Each structure stands twice: as structure tokens, then as C-alpha cells.
Amino acid sequence: MSALEKFGVEIFTQHNIFERISADKPFRPENPAFIFIKSGTIKLRQHFSDLELSANMFMVTDPQTIYEMVSVSGDFQSRMVSYKREFISALSLKFNRLITYRYFRQQMNKGVPFPENEMDIVWKSVNFLKFILDSDAEMLYKKEMVEHLFSVFCYQMSGIISKEDSYSMNQMSRQEEIVFVFLTDLSNHHLTERTVEFYAERQSITTRHLSSVVKSITGKSASQIIALIVMNEAKVLLNSSNKPVSEVSSILGFSDQYSFSHFFKKHLDVSPTQYRHQFEN
Length: 281
Fold this sequence. Notes:
Elements: H1 3-7, E1 9-13, E2 33-39, E3 42-46, E4 49-53, E5 57-61, E6 67-72, E7 77-83, H2 85-88, H3 93-107, H4 116-134, H5 142-170, H6 174-189, H7 196-202, H8 207-218, H9 222-240, H10 245-251, H11 257-268, H12 272-277
Helix pairs in contact: 3-5, 4-5, 6-8, 7-8, 10-11
């Protein structure tokens, strides 16, 4: 049984992080995580932008997002704290909103560093939690120790994120807020709703206004982003399961396999079947 299943949290290093992050095809993390970079760089593609992280930076990953690994440097040194969502749900709504906002900033390709001395403290905290998780010694209250050490880590991160992001979150422009809500709605409804009209109505604005704002903030139209999200979902389903293409098309809300194949080929120039064959040995 993995530490994640047994204790609700698991920590990966640069030596085994790629057991969780696929290096050669799009992937969706099974659980949310914090990824910290101590040295080197890693570049990930998420939704519609590439995010490059270097020393003393961190990012938040979410199971609703599909990522692609673009590159990683030879001196890459990292820690990934992967956790069960229910393990963090008891924390304050403010913290969860800050995490959501941090995720939004990543979508805008805004990876932000945090001070080296704070990274050093968090790094030591994570390493101690990993030491306890990995220990074979008999510990009567190991589960409780893990829970409390993870809480300490969360409070550390809450303090760091609050200090940096609270002001920015409160200063979010009306345009950024529209895109923030659009991306949040899209992550929740993309399997059933693919029209710009639906997402505009969710915010009681016109489709023209939504499209204009999304384009000005992201550089891509709302319809392009919707298509990207659906395509990413399709790629993961095709290369991480043996489900027939007809079943994949049904999961994605297409009326039939033909319309799904037409949509897929329009955006990638290959059919779903051809795409799947690329990853077969």
C-alpha cells in the first residue's frame, strides 16, 4: 500500500517524480499536489500555455488539469507533495481560494518565485515529513504525526501564498475575474458544454464580451480554449485507457463516434485511432 493510500499524503523527489508525471504524453494527475523546484528547470504545458519553473519556485497541480512535460534540465532537483483532496478540505476556505487563485495565475503563465529562505524552511519541513513517511521504524502514532506535519506544511504554504497572493487576488481586474470564472466553469462543465454561449450565460454577459475579454487576457479565443480542453481530455482517455473510440466519444459528450473523430482530426490532423497508435509499442 502506498503512503498516499495509507496516510493521505506522499512525497516524491526528482528521482521518482516521473512515476507520477508522464514524460512522453499528456497526463492527468490522480491527486492534487505542490511541486517545489530547488534547482534546475522544468517546463510543463497546461491548457493553453507553457509554464517554466526554476529554482525557488513552486506550482500547484490539479486533477482537473491535463499537463504535458515539455522539458527538464539535468540539474533538476524537486519535491512533489501529493495529497488526497479530503486531507486538505478541513482547511479554511480562504486557503482553498488562494490555492485556486494560484492555479489561475499558472494558467496565465505567471509562475512566481518565493524567497529562498522560505523555500529552505518548506524544503526542510517536506523532507522531515518524507523521513517519517519512509521510516520502517515502529511508530505508535505515525498516522497522527503525518497528519500534524502535513498541517504544519499547509500552514507554512498558507502564510507564503497569503502574503504574496492576497493583495493580488483582491486587486484582480474585472477582466481577469471574468477569465478566472470562465476557466473554473470550463473545468467543471467541459464534458457536457462546449459552446461559448453557455459560459457567457453563466456570467450574465454576452458571448462577444466573453470572447473579447478571454482573447485580451490569454491571447486565445474562448472557443479555442474550449477546444483545447476537450482535446486534452480526449488525448488522455485515448492513451491511458483501452476504451473503444466510440466509448471515448460518448464520455466526451459527442453525439456519435463520427462527430468526435471529425472534431479530433480537425484539431490534430490525425484520427483518434491514429493518435492512439502513436503510443503503442
